[in-house]
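Example 3.2
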Amino acid sequence: MLKFLPAYLTTMIVMFVLDIIWLSMIAQPIYQQGIGHLMAAKPNLVFAGLFYIVYVSGLMWFALMPNRHHRGLKNTFVAAATFGFFVYASYDLTNLALLKDWPLSLSLIDITWGTLLSGVSASVGKWVFNRMNGIH
């Protein structure tokens, strides 16, 4: 399992950095307009950290590890993007079902973001895995 650690850490870092850029610079006005009344002034870093640990573990289990013997990144990207779609869609559809005035447009943006973020992050992790394990 240690041979997956560099890929795990790389996937985590890529996902975290891209998500910070997305949440703080790009999508912040969209979230503020749609659900600003629900947002905390500061994120709870403990729960945010736990989210990334659990989520990246899911990406590793469902996307990277099953494709560890494949040289290319396409299979990993597709598996990770699919995982991201299902996870983000589950979250957003639950919010649409249960929360008053949850914006559909926000959910569509969030699902799209989660799908792309997952695919890209896991693909970079897989690239590192390939390089560190002599898969060219």
